[in-house]
Amino acid sequence: MRNVFAIAVLGVLLGASPLGAAKAQSQASAAPAPDTAPDPAPAPDTAPAPAPAPVQSQPMPSTGPVTNLPLPRFVSIKTSRAFARRGPSETHRVDWIYERRDLPVRVTGEFEHWRRVEDSEGEGGWVHYSLLSGVRTVLVVNDMAALRSRPRPEAPQVAYLEAGVVARIMECDPGWCRVSIDGTRGWISRGDVWGLEPGEVLD
Asked: Where is the signal peptide (predicted)?
């Protein structure tokens, strides 16, 4: 009995009680597990590259569905009396009457035998093609415009033209037109006339 008691006392002194073991085991089980999982690798950038912007083609110049000629374009009145109607037929009412031969007009539309035209003031209508001519003319829009002997601003004046004069075109470069008015010929600045598309050159 004395030996058993001595062994029990020795066990208490060494801290080997059943309660102490249970407590240590409980603390060990409650401790968080070490974070040993590797950091996840970043997801690869698999987003597709943006598609290149489509190349925009330059717009093709407009052409008339009947003649296949450019639209707009300039022509002139062929007769001394031309009716401009509200629509492309003789049943449409007449809105304007052009009573000036060789007057330049701008063709902006086509339908069968009819052409939609406008004058220097933006007025007009549908005119039968037989009343129009391909002869190119210009309308003087600035009063006392100088007609010169050469296409230079310092060249001698041949004549002075009043606003409203119609002249036939002989040739045009980007800055000047050589014209004829009742047999008188000379060069006039393009800024003084109407009847040409911007940058249009005529030989």
From this structure: 1-21
